[in-house]
């Protein structure tokens, strides 16, 4: 197995795998190519290459408004999901109490419910209040599906963190809150960050639930794109997608950098 | 810390003497305080809304979008008595089965390769396989529209090569939805498989091969059984995701592919017939229940085979 010779079996494997990877990446490659297309509607091969479609994205009012709605919603949702999810993760990993595994299951159960059903459910409950077509409605709608991810990521980092430092602080007389603030929180900071980022990205990307609870006034970006694509197909959607991918890559890299930088500062 | 050993089902036991009661009641109270905000959030944004759906499914729709507050199964009877909805349910399940099958077929070789390779490109290849998850399914579906449409990449290329005269019908039908959905769920399946392939030990394959087993036998007797749990998890994940998928059937289906998800949306938003939308949601949840029960059963069967016949039968 360790020999690197090119046998017929290996060649077949290579061809099959290349084909499968091409299939997997095909829509992304097409989106990338089309984002530079200068024609006003989708065609292949592109007529010419330019940045027209990118200019169109910035000129599109519904995309700009959608970006703002999604950004504000995602930030607020991530914050609320952290505020409610982190204490729960702490209780589930650090405390022993009756019914713990049942409550753990409760916290993961929203992942099993289809978003189309949750969307309808939230419409039915938010419409009479009335919170549909508002920021609060969107935030509440996204909260239920982001909390489980926060609980999971933060729990994972709490489990892998060594609790002996916490115990040492406790025996030396630190209060529970003090121990959490000075010992636990710094230890699990990477887990907290990734939990927050995941909640943000999930909320920013949430389409189906938003479709039900958004209206004319607060239209999040994915819903705006969906409505756009349903009636028109021009390269600006491709450019928008490329910009969003770049944005999420930048966010991930910045967080990675920020955490790494802070760590080196602390150890130095 | 002894409370952990108390089974969850046990009735609240009287505090045993000799143990410090403050230490036992303290954590419980603290736990409740810590859990309360999260539980409240889930209650308001997930549990209560689902109860509302159940309640709504027992109502009836009146004239002109009116909702009659009843407690009856009339809407269920209407939906289940209509051929149209049976077609929708049938097409939803058919789409789920087809997409799951094709996703497993295209994901398995990739996952197997990524699980076994020692190449220094491994992490790059894993990243490439998972990258699509970073990109919204609306954007990827848009990409597939550009590939599958009558003026799309495939038809233009085949036409340019002179292989076809009239464009192939790859969009606005079930074929297109299956192709695009397969790609959209592929990264989920690959991830689920890789993490489920934990039992795959190359030493076993080496042993089998050195004992003279041909490649095909090694695969059938060693690799396949050891990877089945991962495949099963991936199958559940993809099936459940595609049962409730909305974006791809809507966009690639072009209004001609009716599944439960698109029907729920249309009834709720376009027709404002909330009772029927609620009934369809309850039916979708019922299908979910059946699928998850089947999964748990299959998992038990596999576990029994793994632990060996003697242990399983004892």
Q: Give the integer mean of the pLDDT values of chain A.
A: 86
Averaging pLDDT over every residue of chain B, what do you get? 85
Q: Helical region count of chain B?
A: 13
Percent range for β-strand residues of chain A: under 5%
Low-confidence stretches of chain A: 264-268
- Note poorly predicted spans of chain B: 1-24, 310-314
What's the helix-strand series of chain B? HEEHHHHHHHHHHHH
Helix-and-strand structural type of chain A: mainly alpha
Share in helix of chain A: over 70%
Task: Name the features.
heterodimer, A: disordered C terminus, B: 314 residues, mainly alpha, two-stranded antiparallel ribbon, 72% helix, globular
Describe the structure.
The complex is a heterodimer of chains A (268) and B (314). With 268 residues, chain A is an all-alpha fold. Chain A is 76% helix and 0% strand. Chain A contains twelve helices and no strands. In chain A, α2 packs across α12. Chain A starts with 7 loop residues before the first helix and ends with a helix. Chain B is mostly helical and 314 residues long. Chain B is built from 13 helices and two strands. Chain B has helices spanning 21-57, 74-80, 83-116, 122-130, 137-148, 153-160, 174-196, 202-210, 215-243, 247-253, 260-270, 274-307, 309-313, and strands at 60-61, 67-68. In chain B, strands 1-2 form a two-stranded antiparallel sheet. In chain B, a hairpin with a 5-residue loop joins β1 (60-61) and β2. In chain B, α3 packs across α9 (215-243). The longest helix of chain B is centred in the first third of the chain and has 37 residues, at 21-57. Chain B is globular. The model of chain B is unreliable at 1-24 and 310-314 (pLDDT under 50).
